[in-house]
Amino acid sequence: MDFKQSDANVLRIKCSVLALTRFEEDGITGTVKKVDSALGGALSLISQDEKFNGELGKSVLVNTLGKIGAERVLLVGLGKKVALSSDNFRKVGILTAKKVKQFAETITFNSEADLKKGYLTALIEGLTLGSYEFDKYKTNNKKVNGIKTVEFISSTLTERSFKQEVEFARAISDATNFARDLINEPPIVLTPAKLADFAREIATEEKLQCEIFDRDEMEKRGMGGLIAVSLGSEEPPKFIHLTYEPRKKPKKAVAVVGKGITFDTGGLCIKPRDSMRTMKMDMSGAACVLGVMKAITKLNPSVRVHGLISATENMPGGKAYKPDDIVRALNGKTIEVIDTDAEGRVVLSDALSYAVELKVDEIVDLATLTGACIVALGNYTAGLMGNNEKLIDKILKAAKLAGEKVWQLPMDDELRKDIESDVADVKNVGNRWGGAITAAMFLEKFVGDTPWAHLDIAGPAFMERGGDWYPKGGTGFGVRTIIRYLLEM
After folding, report:
1. H/E element holding 122?
2. Which residues are catalytic?
3. Domain 2-146: what homologous superfamily?
4. 17-37 confidence digits (pLDDT tens)
5. Residue 208: what are its φ and ψ, rounded to 5°?
């Protein structure tokens, strides 16, 4: 998708769709009124018929019948002026792309609201994210080429600022769509080895350092958690370590850690059929890490970033790890296995311990970790927990800028006894109450004193039915939040 600036006459410019916006309070005014008059009041009439009043998430579409240069006009709601934010523009972009991508190759965008810094970035993000589809395995795919060019009519943006915002938006949205592609790949394709191949390709393209540990190296280092979970699968596990070095001396070092279970049957504690069907998405944390690392050199944050992934399948093979097993993680702590379907935290125990060995200043992990988090917060919001309020506040701020829903859950000390073990240092699961919190408390055992934040993305990582602002399937949740967190340091 190509993005351009234009100062053309809104009534004469040739395009598939002229996209306009209006606030709830404004009615048909300004440029919208000008276009409406040229169309003989068609926008007013259809807005009235469809009860469209400029609400965010709603729109009306009109065929111009050749009365102006554009073939169609899409009028999109911006919501209330007092609530205007960059996320409104991101949502406008997503809605616009979804509405017109099947028939429009060229869009001209004219907004009554000034596209000041940040608003244009969000709008371009939305257009790119809303255009996403995963259809590579459809043999009779008749989809048109989709949106090719978007022009923005604006007199306030300098050429330099326009170029900067386009580059940033393209990097961050392309990284999100890349993560979506990984999540949507079938598990027969996206094995731990293939995930490692993608990491190598990113390292080559972006000039990152790359280390991939196989099972022998894991055994030498004592990565007992990752090894244990991998035993039931014929696919060999991989531990992935990508490193980005900033151009100047780094302000600090950060580890971004992703859970990379490329398919989760539950192991010997096997899942029911319906619960197993979408478990290709259990590597969404890993996909987020790779998406971030794919974009990072284009954005040049001032911190050293270590992208770490524990990758394996969780299968019920003859050598599979069992309930009542005790495994030893990289930092020496022992884990009593209560439930083999609580495997994500077990593989993360090694990745978090490894991050501590790197002597990083902060650790952030992302994992589709618990159904309990979905019960608590629903499908659209990630749970955030950790041991450092300053770090948590930074993640919350970044998520708000990114337009991703994140909510902090308490690390309630009264729940800690639920993962106490009689025979090991910690159990890998407590009882059913507060399961997202006790899972985070398990992870906390492996970060030492390092400031750490945990994002449980089990809800928003994958949408079985899609949504207004998300595609069906993998969403790439977390990529935009983590990038903004890294850039704010």
Report:
1. helix 119-130
2. 271, 345
3. Leucine Aminopeptidase, subunit E, domain 1 (3.40.220.10)
4. 999 999 998 888 899 999 999
5. -105, 160
